[in-house]
Sequence to fold (319 residues):
Amino acid sequence: MKNNIYSFKVVVEGGKGGNGLVSFLRVAHQPRGGPDGGDGGKGGDVLMKAYDKYHSLEHLHYEPIIKASNGAPGHKNKKHGKNGKNKIILVPPGTTIYNCDKKELIVDMVSEGMEIELVKGGKGGQGNVHFTTSTNQTPRIATPGKEGEKKTLILEYSPLIDVAVIGLVNAGKSSIIEELTGCTTQISNHPFTTRKPHLWSCLYNYNRFTFLDTPPLFSEYSSDIEILIRRASVLIIVFDGSNENLYEQSKLLEENFLDGLIDREGKSIVIVLNKVDKISKKVNISFSYPIFLTSIKNNKGIEELRAFIFEKLEEKKNV
Fold:
């Protein structure tokens, strides 16, 4: 599995417990003060917390192994070593945690502030004060601290969205989102303007809906895009209607993406044929989903598309 800004493999490890201490009391007028070695501190735990200031997993890429602090060794005078500091990993809400082979879902971090313990730190070792017996008043043994738990996990970030908009290069996805939501998106007259996923929010009939603008769809990235759009209840697929290879692109997308899309049955899928003002000949494509012909320049089909999308969203909101 390759790491990217929305899918990441990480090793988490609790801190090692501190070692117990072998020590004997040394004070004036008490030559046989006895053992006074303290216990080691507990190793720190590794926790994960949902934090809405993050919108990807990119900040974790420079730390593929995340470890909590070790516990400190015990001290003289039966003093306990300092416990290791816990390590808190911050992730965006919508992050799902799996075990290393993705066969077990550990937790879905769906709300801000949600927190889970991933691994525990090791217990601290015992100092020699614990090993005094009637036959051994001066024990010279102590136990080492335990190693912390260690796990390999897979994190996937699927934004908490209502609508996902996907398409090939220069199809006009951002323009469609701008028309539907009233938000101001980054639009330029060159390919690959959208290089990272962007979230846009709008109000409709007192309900808030979130739209996701994805990077251009290519077959080698289709599994990554599928992670991003997993939670969407409505999926808008935008095509550049003026593209000469429109038919080949539509078949490629259907065969390489839609046919293998997980949870497809739970989504309302809409096809948008954009830039129809530039079409000079008859278009030959067919889908088993609703198709809308749009032109941002001429404001063609936008109102019909908006009404359809928000009707579907409100239907799913009321289910």
Q: What stands out?
A: The domain at 163-317 is CATH 3.40.50.300 (Rossmann fold). The two ends are 36 Å apart (CA to CA). The mean pLDDT is 87.
